[in-house]
Amino acid sequence: MRLLLTILAAAALGAGCEKKAPVAAERAPVEVTVMQVALRDAPVTYEFVGQTQSSHQVQIRARVNGFLDRRLYTEGSMVKAGQPMFQQDPKPFQAQLDAAKGALAEQQARLQTANDNLAQVKPLAALKALSQKELDDATGQQQAAAAAVQVALANVETARLNLSYTRITTPVTGLSSYAQVQDGAYVNTENSLLTYVAQLDPIWVNFSISENEILSVRNEQKAGRLKLPPRDEYVVELVLADGSVFPKTGRVTFANADYDTQTGTFMLRATLPNPDGSLRPGQFVRVRLKGATRPNAVLVPQQSVLQGAKGHFVVLVDKDNKALLRNVEVGPWLGDDWFINAGLQPGDRVVTDGMARLSPGATVKITDAKAAAPASAPQAARPAAPAASK
Predict the structure, then answer these.
(1) In angstroms, rounded to a whole number, what is the distance separating the alpha carbons of residues 372 and 345?
(2) Which of 323, 330, 335 has the alpha carbon at shortest distance from 305?
(3) Which of 110, 111, 130 is nearest to 120 (CA)?
């Protein structure tokens, strides 16, 4: 019995070995989304960190020594050019003016006497009734009296100016600061600074560019990958701390003559209109320079660019609908897209969705294909320094 079971088991095992192994099912094509590469001129936006500055900040100082009677403005308010801000005690200066006027009247009387005396001496000297010395003395007295009148006039004008300086006004329209000297204090050269006024319209924005950025943009310009606006007339746009865009745009109006030796950067200044005063001096903002373009540029979505051991690459679909890898040289970002400096040609089909399920040589099924379209919000990530490229 045991022998019979052993024979039957061996026969069953032999019969099973004669069956063929099942053939693996052919892998289905992977569904992907692709875009077709097309050349186009793409805008380039350079972004930097900047800080606002008053276009005309004036120190309001006392010009004469004396007691400060009162403050005439509201601290922190907008003031207009010519508006009084402080009043010093005018009484001592009014007294000085009155004394100067009295001295002037005295000198004018002496001049009149000298003129009358000279008028009498001249004809008598001509008739030889008086000596030449007497004529010279009369002439000298008249000239001295005339000079004394001029000095007295200057003293009157000085006293009048000192009296006018007791009413301290602002020379510019702008935002006032707090009063640094309180009412009743004695003002002299040591504490003559009373406050300051900062002009807000227009507003300045200072920002710096590194030497590497300047060299980079020059190299790209020489290589034909970058076209700068004529005469470097960039449009300046500001992004505020909350991400909102300032409604007014401006221009670059100043470039420093040399580099900062400590930071190795080059300072630029933009001027923007600020009619409602919403921008205040000292704010940190992001400065965007618009106007440059990349001619015949290749742009692909950022998610299409992968990075491996040999650098960046993309997945393409060839004419046989097979996946293949292509190494590329990437440039800066433009919104949600990435500039490709080398590695792609017009007509190439780049996979934009479904790359994770692909391997080289895999068969793909294109579910959506489109040509490259312009980016909607160009915001390049500080590729270089445009305005200093001369």
Answers:
(1) 12
(2) 330
(3) 130
pLDDT confidence bin for 374, thresholds 50/70/90: very low
CA dist 45 and 201 (Å) reads 25
Determine the pLDDT at residue 94. 97
Q: Which residue has the higher pLDDT, 237 or 353?
A: 237
Look at residue 102 and give its three-state secondary structure: helix
Nearest to 106 by CA among 149, 75, 160, 63: 149
Instruction: For the chain, give every domain's residue range.
Output: 30-42+297-371, 46-54+200-294, 68-88+167-191, 91-165
Yes or no: domain 91-165 corresponds to CATH 1.10.10.10: no
Report yes or no: 267 and 206 within 8 Å, Cβ to Cβ: yes
For the domain covering 46-54+200-294, report its CATH number: 2.40.30.170
Q: Is residue 384 a contact partner of residue 214, using CB atoms and an 8 Å limit?
A: yes
Phi-psi group of 18: left, alpha or beta (phi > 0 → left; psi -120 to 50 → alpha; rest → beta): alpha
CB 211 within 8 A of CB 261: no
Burial 81-99 (b: 16+ CB within 10 A, else e): eeeebbebbbebbeebbee
Residue 46 token pair: 């350079």
The CATH class for the domain spanning 30-42+297-371 reads: mainly beta
Express each pLDDT in 301-339 by its tens digit. 989 999 888 899 999 999 889 999 999 999 888 778 888
Distance CA 112, CA 91 (A): 32
Peptide bond into 202 cis (omega under 30): yes
Count the Cβ atoms, other than its own, within 10 Å of residue 9.
Answer: 10
Task: Tell me the pLDDT band of 75, cut-offs 50, 70 and 90.
Answer: very high
pTM value is: 0.72
What is the DSSP track for 138-165?
HHHHHHHHHHHHHHHHHHHHHHHHHHHH
Q: What is the pLDDT of residues 222-249, one digit of tens each?
A: 888 889 998 889 999 999 999 999 999 9
